[in-house]
Amino acid sequence: MIANSAGTHQSLDGFIATCRTLIENERPIAEITRAMEELVAEPAALGAQIPEPVISPDTSIAGVDEILFEDDSLTVFVVHSASDVRQPPHDHRISAVIGVYEGTEEQRYFRRDGGSLVRSGGADIGPGDVLTLGPAAIHAIGSTGSWCRAIHVYLGPLSSIDRSLFDPDTFDEEPMTVERYAEFCRSAVPGGSVNVEG
Known about the structure:
By secondary structure, this protein is an alpha+beta fold. The protein has helices at residues 12-22, 28-39, 43-49, 178-183, and strands spanning 2-3, 9-10, 63-70, 75-81, 85-86, 90-91, 96-102, 105-113, 116-125, 130-133, 138-143, 148-154, 164-166, 173-175, 186-187.
């Protein structure tokens, strides 16, 4: 259970219900960001609510994304990013709020430059940290040394939006698919193999 600013406690289900209300507000990103800050303020307590994913031979090398909620206005995921995997650049075309509760989510940012991409900085967000991304953002994530676990909230129906994926070697743009995303994942350890064991 997670302490909020009112001194009460909120479950992950309660957070989703809060987001469903806040999405109707005039400034939903700011309000959902505050709610996320409260949710991840006690990372270990949040982690205790969320079982670690079951890893199978069919698990993507990127890790596991679990959809907790999705409708036309809101999507909430738990993202379990496998250690030592660099995931490919991609966009969402809707705003996002990310809160980490375990490990470190490495963010690499990109911007369009003509028909390609160029790097434009990055950030590491760890337990208790919250990051917001606008609808034009292009990023790639990774986690070095250990798994990263985070809540990702998107202001729209992420699974039904036509969005883009970029080849990490050439930056060529193509439609996002789960299969191509997994193909574009790379080991972050030179000469190393990808490990999806949690």
